[in-house]
From TrEMBL:
Regions crossing the membrane: 616-637
UniProt xrefs under SMART domains: AAA, PepX_C
Keyword annotations of the record: ATP-binding, Hydrolase, Membrane, Nucleotide-binding, Signal, Transmembrane, Transmembrane helix, Transport
Keyword Aminoacyl-tRNA synthetase: no
Residues making up the signal peptide according to the UniProt record: 1-41
Protein name per Swiss-Prot or TrEMBL: ABC-2 type transport system ATP-binding protein
Keyword match Nucleotide-binding: yes
GO function terms (MF aspect): ATP binding; ATP hydrolysis activity; dipeptidyl-peptidase activity
PROSITE patterns xref list: ABC_TRANSPORTER_1, ABC_TRANSPORTER_2
Gene3D superfamilies the UniProt entry points to: alpha/beta hydrolase, Galactose-binding domain-like, P-loop containing nucleotide triphosphate hydrolases
Annotated family: Belongs to the ABC transporter superfamily.
Amino acid sequence: MRPLRGLVRPRLRPGARGTSAVLAALLLVTGLLVLAPPASAAADEVRTEESRVVSGSGADAVELDTTLYLPAGQGPAPAVVLAHGFGGSKQSVADDARALAERGYVVLAYSARGFGTSTGEIGLNDPRYEIADLSTLIDLLAERDQVELDADGDPRVGVAGGSYGGALALLGAAYDDRIDAIAPQITWSSLSAALFPSHVGELDTGTPAAVPQDADSGVYKRLWSGLFFGVGSVPTGGILDALGGGTANGNSVPELPEAGDLSDLDPAAVERALTCGRFGAEICAAYQEAAATGTLTPEVAAVLDRSSPAGVLDRIEAPTLLIQGTQDSLFGLDHADANARGIAANGTPVKVVWYAGGHDSSGSDRIVDDLRGQVADWFDFHLRGTGEDPGTGFEFPAPQGISGSSGFVQGGTRTVVADEYPGLGGAAAVERTEIALGGGTQPVVTPAGGTPAALTTLPGLGALSGALSGTTLEIPGQFAAFESEPLDGAVEVVGAPTVDLAVSAPGGTATLFAKLYDVAPGGATTLPNGLVAPLALTGLSTDPTDPTEVTVTLPGIVHRFEDGHTMRVVVSSTDQAYALPAEAAVYSVALASEGTTLAAPQVAGVAESAGGTSRWWVLLAVLAGVGLLGWVAAMLWGRHRRRQVSHVEPDGEDVPLRFEGVTKAYKDGFVAVRDLSFEVRRGQVLGLLGPNGAGKTTSLRMLMGLIRPTEGRISIFGHAAGPGAPVLSRLGSFVEGTGLQPHLSGRDNLRLYWAATGRPLEDAHMEEAIEVAGLGAALDRPVRRYSQGMRQRVAIAQAMLGLPDLLVLDEPTNGLDPPQIHAMREVLRSYAATGRTVIVSSHLLSEIEQTCSHVVVMAKGQKIAQGTVEEIVGAGGAVLVGLADDADTDRAIAVLEGLPGVSAGRTDDGLVADLDGYGRAAALQALVGAGIAVDEFTPRRRLEDAFLALVGEN
């Protein structure tokens, strides 16, 4: 895990081992290092404060070196904690911190324990140490006047970081619920799966890049692990500094004599410094055991799993932006896939972004700038409640292919955007194209000691290897190959393909490596991004005539196989990047059956921008992107000038819902809602009325955070509404269809919905909701056997689970018979009588009149009236006339109809007069003047009459 500057920029410390220096030099020579943009004009407005923060207690206490970036302007602002990559320090994220501060955030950058000048030992994001340190820093932010608070001791805060820092963001959100949004990048889900991968077995998730993992075994990723430990074991300033530097990194060590003679030092201190460096004892022991045996022992697994988000993803409630690189042989796309599945299962909003870069290749300036902007936009929306809704979609680089004859990269630099990440939440499963493969049973030799070994990837250079026409070295006799026919059309693979193989081994176990090559018509081969799928196979048949069938998942890639190209699956016995068996053996490898296919995942989307065709070496021209930095700085300054700091309205608890100047306009010029302003108070039942196209449903969708207003603000209990906003947990809704699962019973639908919220079952008030449904024994029958009215009642009960403080219902009485409508009316009235608030949108005006206390009338996207039902009904010219003596009725009608424009007559309710603009007082005076005793003279008309008068019959 090399250090990262922000998203993808490496920064190797002085004194790192030779391997690290060689990798950095190679990246620099090939032009893949991304230059940091210069500070914008706003940089002068950002103030910094340096401090050392004590975290932990006793022997575990450390001092963390921190820098606090304070933005210009008045008033508290949300905060962001920036965590650096492995081997880095707070300086690695300095430019990103300043850019966020210029955008209006209070930013805290720090060096993790064991890095930079922070003391202590590396615990590998151990919850007891590094994650506890993060909570200490959040405590510090809560004490700053410049930081916006959600509650006493609870700052509005987000966390971002790459690789090591990305895992810290995930683990931090799982252990500290004060974190409000996170943006982890190119990081891991399971550290065991990352360092001991095995792509064997079936995994039915429906997501594009899911990879199975045996929790008890895997193939040791030897080169990456060695580089990782090498960077971390070199003490700050070099090994000799650690041996003679007093209390460097919190460890008391002997002072180095002037002559530098190691014989004068404590041998134990020398050995520890040379072998473990800055790592804690448990981490050092785990690495030494793994390096010596190449085996995932329970002890090693315990250390790695403790530092893995995989085990605590169900705790994460902070909206999560997952950014992962397609050029990453350390943490592949499968890690982001696993994190997305685990977090979304808790009902937490998740957006997934794949980009062309990763640990093997820094992204271009354009990509880095775009990702930096996406992180800032994510925090703008989820911490401030400003800016466009980033949604929960999926973005990936447009698949690129290789022309075999010319070496040209086809596709350019487009980004493809999909509305949903396939298989996540309610999204449909990823589509897979079946590609037929051919090839017979083939022997595969494993050489003694694993030498010579196939060369497919180098840590940090895997993507470069793939770009160099897929330069690899497969050893003859050590691999089996299975090919498709030349493709009769291009196939774009987005995710991890799968294939079924049949394998036998003399000892019942085998270590193999599966790869998917792109073979051009001229025979040139390309291994996309140099990615390999290790296979740790156990329980195999020892009989080549009766092999064991296994399902293999190939690496997650984004690649276009061009028309006329061939897909070639290669299964080899060696790979120099991994630990290999010492004993020689001969395996038998075949396709599972004659009709075996490669299942290639494909994802449809819309390309946002198009690029041209270029040779792979055009990557060297990345330095030319420096000319764009001025424009980037200007854009950042413009965003800084336009920023708006979110706030909590002081009367929020008394005003559950407030629309302020809300407008929703679409790109085609259509304005669905225009300058809508109204508020709803506690205990009210508000009816939202309007003809079709009035903007009612659009308004409800905006308040629920499903779409974002173009202008204006919507607040719920004083907090800005939007996707993932914590305040939405106080809202229950039923809008645009029931959304019930037809194969489940009504009761199971209610339980499933509540389980998706992640809240305790006892908070659901399930029995109260079931009483609302009123289905009796039918509640336990499948929903597909329900009538429309029964479905409607279950959906309303679902909206009322947890007894939300704000209940929003769109056409709740559709499909209900009159007795059920009457019962629903009583439920809603009594619900509001408890101090909660109900909003009902309906076309049944009589039900609104009998159910609601207040009404907002809309037409053509605008509010045309608001008030109590009595006020709206009483705004017309009809009056109910009550007479002391019914015998005077005919005489009263004659008097009233003698007035200009007035008509009168008997009704079931009594004598009703339509004054048609004639003054009420004058009409009453005319009756009294005629000697008629009047007991009642009140406005009288139906809500329907008022509605038609306000919006017009058409």
